[in-house]
Design brief:
The chain is an alpha+beta fold. 22% of the residues lie in helices and 33% in strands. The protein has helices at residues 36-44, 70-81, 160-168, 183-189, 195-201, 230-237, and strands at residues 6-10, 14-19, 51-52, 61-67, 85-94, 101-105, 108-110, 120-122, 130-141, 144-153, 208-217, 220-225.
Amino acid sequence: MDKLFDIIHEDAELLVVNKPADLVCHPTKGDALSSLISRARVYLGNEGTPRLVNRLDRETSGVTIIAKTPEVAGELGRVWETRAVEKQYLAIVHGHLSDETGVINGPLGKDENSRVAIKDCVRPDGAPAQTEFTVLKRFERAEGTFSSLRVVPRTGRKHQIRIHLAHLGFPIVGDKLYGADEDLYLALVERRLSDEQRRRLLLPNHALHASAVRFFWREHWREFRGEPESWFLGFQMVGC
């Protein structure tokens, strides 16, 4: 059997994994390895009823917490509802940001000008959203200039980090939906993504990684961290 996932932490109640990119959290087909939750069921067998505590987009890699029982899932779900959860991401974006740190404050709502139904954008009447960023490194490759960022979402809106960075003028490398051409996303969905389009994207998945999650539960702080995959790390090492 193929490797199911990298385990960051496991105890009697929690399974914390480093979700690979290009894996959905919930199943879209019957294959037992087609989603993170189905892989968790295979791994646990009859020893648990896994429930996802947090979820990541298909192409976003990183720390994902799985409760082994519905009771634990309910407890942690209430923790998440209080928003007393600290999340940290790593991202690689196009361009060199001039500021070392900053906060992007942009309300988010449906992008009514897009052909993609799930696409959102910054709009004045949207839901409040704030994203904090810190530049870790600026570098150059033959394809252009890039920056590595540490990103902390202060709110938890759909696609928030991707939208905010693109709105600022620094889209995430490999982002098919919020990059320069949303037809790349449509081409992917319609299974017509060409080799030339893949070359334009530079990476097989968008360069966003959930690197850490920290929360207070049962009188203790819990913190889990996971490293990005090799394709993510390798991209920012070239030309440095």
